[in-house]
## 1
Amino acid sequence: MHELSIAVSIVDIAEKEAARRGACVEAVHLRLGPLSGVVKEALLSAYEMACENTPLAGSSLMVEDVPLVVYCPQCKQRRTLSSMNFLCPECQTPTPEVLQGRELEMFALELEDAA
Amino acid sequence: MTPRLVEVRQNVLKHNDEVARALRQRFHDSGVFVVSVVSSPGSGKTMFLEKTLTLLRRDYRVAALVGDLATENDAQRLARSQAPVRQIVTGTLCHLEAAMVEKALDNWDDAGNPDFLFIENVGNLVCPSSYDLGEDLRLILVSVTEGEDKPLKYPTIFNTSDVAVISKMDLAQAVEFDWQALESNIQVVRPGMHVMGVSAKTGQGMDEWLEWLVGLRSQPLTVDN
């Protein structure tokens, strides 16, 4: 269960960004891939805990699931996988090359200007 | 007033990744080949490493860092190999982070610049997968007693590992271990991964593993996170 330390990092980064812009954080937008090693549900509850007694208390965490995308060397195409079965869904060739799916990225903040 | 949306685009683990990148550069510059070992608790990491250190130190300089939640028992066991060993007690933290490795390397003079540095992560198949430690190779150890479907249950840690070693091969027959099932499950979640079987107790497979490792060190490596 390392989601709490991840949540603390998220709050930390968001707090600094908001302070730099003289604003308060309403929401944090995160992109999360299935290979990030982070469980969304655990992260959401950890986020609330991590926000307590910080300027982010009451803010929300919006998580966008990033699909797992691999490169099929046979089809020479990007393929989206629906599970962790690393086979091309079209031709069943093994697809070790991961193009997308490791993301644990904060991509946007919703800010409200401090009164 | 409606909130405004500001693009940030920042990797949440950026700090860890930066420390890991600096470590990787430092290891490369000083010729240290770094292997991190991940596994579930009780799969035989410590015994495997003790044997690896003992055999490898006949021809190479070796050292080990070992992460553990609460005790220093693992470090004491590894020290029997006569190799320099340092313990990282992680407290309640379920994984190692790059900064902990960096700190553990401070003033570690008796380790010098080893040819091989092993980092034993905390026994956990979930949390360590997110943290780059600056290693050249992430080795996942699975014992024959764990069930052949382990890769399907923990695909992320298998996918982010570079090589799989099956431990406790001396027990394979007793537990009716199915090599083919485990190997094919590994290939499902990490196509192309090299798989070797060892028994640290009897020494079975240890020569093959060490030969493979030594061969890898002499190859130019691509830096890859």
## 2
Amino acid sequence: MTETQNLTLVQAVRDGLFTEMSADEDVVVLGEDVGKNGGVFRATEGLYDEFGGDRVIDTPLAESGIIGAAVGMAAMGMRPVPECQFSGFMYPGFDQIVSHMSRFRTRSRSRFTLPMTLRAPYGGGIRAPEHHSESKEAFYAHEAGLKVAIPSTPYDAKGMLISAIRDPDPVVFLEPKLIYRAFRGEVPEEDYEVPLGEAITRREGDDIAVFTWGAMTRPTMEAAESLAEEGIECEVVDLRTVSPLDREAIVEAFEKTGRAAVVHEAPKSGGLGAEITATIQEEALLYQEAPVKRITGFDVPFPLYALEDYYLPSAARVEAGVKEAVNFP
Amino acid sequence: MSVLETDPEDMIRVIDEDGEVVGDVPDLSEEEFVAMYRYMKLARHFDERAVSLQRQGRMGTYPPLSGQEGAQIGSALALAENDWIVPSYREHGAALVRGVPLKQTLLYWMGHEDGNRMPEGVNVFPVAVPIASQIPHATGAAWARKLQGDDDVFLCYFGDGATSEGDFHEGLNFAGVFDTPTVFFCNNNQWAISVPRERQTASATLAQKADAYGFEGVRVDGMDPLAVYKATTAAVEKARDPDEDQLRPTMIEAVQYRFGAHTTADDPTVYRDEDEVEKWKAKDPIPRLENYLRAEEILNDERVAEIEASVKEEVAGAIDEAESVPRPEPREMFEHAYAELPPELERQYEEFAAVREEYGDDAFLED
């Protein structure tokens, strides 16, 4: 029988890093405060003592340098895992992400590939200052050549991170920091992969398919339980990887129910809810019984924390949105 | 010789750790000396209360400034009324000198957007959180004033870590090329969260980086408010009215130490030794200025007690005021996104308002 540990999501991230660093000397971690400090969220705790400063590298405060240097390392066959301390601080490195990280394979006709995993905590709800709360996965999902993974459980965090590190192509690995320590889950001590690009059904139901990911799986599940008491059964699908999307899983859940809602904390316009809706239009139009309902953040800059609880989709907004879709017309 | 011609390897100093005079004391009136001292006491007390509010759950994550009062107050006092500061996120002391009410600063860290809306006539840019990102703004704003025929000077604050970012290079490079009236003030507090100054650059000093942009860079004892005042005054004068062979910008590296954590979310005991902290605490800018002013008979026990009491009262009043401000209405998220609310945003707000009406505020708010 497999031994397991009861870990939080951030501990599972750390365990995934530990597992891959132990197995493969080419795996290195670099970023701000990842070394001696063990990461501002403790995602790299103890790794510096275990693997030393040449593999757990405290860098100067420079995201373009961190990501750009990781591109160079990856081109030479290493498997760097650069960290940006918050996703809101990735933008000085955005040029490296969209001009190079995503394109090296294409540009070099696969002579150079970039087996690198760019990690960053993302999302709101922790009463943090400006730029510490945004949810911008759509930026990266829009960029061809990248995969974008977002775990929502400790088990997935470790398994998906291992898959990302072993992936021959660059992965943006966004960690929902609101649920870094919100709950624990059983995580195998051994190494295992949770494949990227595969959604998982978190709850079965016949009335409506609700697609979500990251920290929003919690209010979605909460709303689903509450709606069940009123006789509305939600099929909740956690997409887990937002690029490439698991289009088969989306279509299958939709065909089962004929109605859908998408819950994401990112702003509505240009968000991935639109991509999921378009997938349904393209693949399952004849099954459609109601407009797809998007329950999302608003198209405004993420507010400071006095208002963030209003900004983030709450179970109440999920409930109201699901009912609208279920009661249509 | 101008103080700005000091070799960047040297350190501009006026009073030592005990408040003994070791350089030329700037020409300030008694009132100005006392005002400097009081601002520093006010900033320190504010900081202690703010950390305590965060610990009690009455405020969100907060970046403390203790240890850095000499650099903030000494530099901000060197500006003329129409000059500007372009802060990062730790310059609550400098902001105070420039007229930002304490209540505003508290509100900002209590998560209210209104805290970042500087009152009219207060020449302070909004808090900039992403490291170094405000540096090109300071260059551009100063450049604009120059093009508009004004003689305002812009004092831009950033930390040692910021000198590693691309924006630092681009901002200073533009300033040199376009000769903008900008003073780049680096609060080198030795630590960018857990990363020491030595890990930011292999350069011997940060000040010497100015040389590569074609203008002067100097190092000053950042825990000596009189030295900071002197260096910043010279830099501001040069920015406003340079000699024919001078470029306007200057970079000042103020060597100092953050006594506390990077923010209240940080635990510095993980990465730095208590011995080091104690060594720097001996350089505390407040007692050393106080010692000097006592020796000059500008301060005495009675005057110090008076100042301490008035500072406590002022901070307590600001906290009461800030805490009595109700949570903003959610509508405020929408109102400042554009000059006119686009129809889709109006629709999003209406939909939200209907759900809030039906489910009540408790369905949204955790506390």
